[in-house]
Amino acid sequence: MIKSSLRDLSWTAAGTVLVIVIVLLALHSHRDEDTATRAAFRAKRLELVGRIHAALSLSSEAEKSAVMATTDQESRTFAEQARSASAVVEERRDELGKLLEMGGTREERDLLSQFSQALTQVQQIDRELLDLASKNTNLKAYALVFGPVADALASMDGALSRILRESTNSTAPEARQVMLLASGAQSGAWRIQALLPPHIFEESDQKMDELEARMSNEDEKVRSALKELGALLGSRSSDLETAMSSYARFTEFKKQILDLSRQNTNVRSLIISLNQKRKAIQMCRDALDTLEQAIQAESRADRAPMSPR
Predict the structure, then answer these.
(1) Which of 37, 169, 193, 280 is the most exposed place for a label (fewest CB within 10 A)?
(2) Which structural domain, as residue segments, surrounds residue 236?
(3) DSSP 22-51
């Protein structure tokens, strides 16, 4: 009987050990499966953070290209690319938000909220910035200065130079006065043109006012000189007619240039890009970097050994 009891006890112990082993194996297997599930979930979130980073960088680079483009078509093309990339950022952000609601931590959700606030600021800036960049008013004004304006002044200068040569060889009593008036009109017109480029790339309205006041003063001198030349030479001078008509064309182009320059779209978009936009983008990146670190910290927690009880 004693031997039988010992044998039964041995089988019972062996069975108990077997059950314990099976339970431990099951628990270990379950823990491995749970760890693998968390790793996959973590990898998916990190992948989305990376894709948001990439789309954000693409949007930022396209915005800079729109600002630096030299034609309306190029600016519009890059602006559309920037908007499209920004839309991708929103889509990936929403997808990540759903995942964090399913299994993310409170810290991760707060960091995504910070990113969303910074992204809203970026998009608000882009609406103004990309619209300005597509107009290129400063570049158009600059093209007028060294295109039609230069041609008009060259025509005026050539006509006045011929008048100067004729007066140099003339013995008429008014010859010296004609020379002074012609050279004065020439130099005054060129001084006005020299003031246009600084006006085009000036940021301050006050300084633009000062430049326009100087242009107005020179314009009065040129008009006065041409009027006096008309009184001295009369209608017999075709060169004077050419000079006056050329200056009239120049004046019309100057008005267009000043109007375009006052809009200042290239200057304003560049300033916004280098200041407000750069700071807002950096806030987005900082929030994403911190979120990425928070998600990666979960991996270190999984690998940490269990503390003994």
Answers:
(1) 169
(2) 137-263
(3) HHHHHHHHHHHHHHHHHHHHHHHHHHHHHH
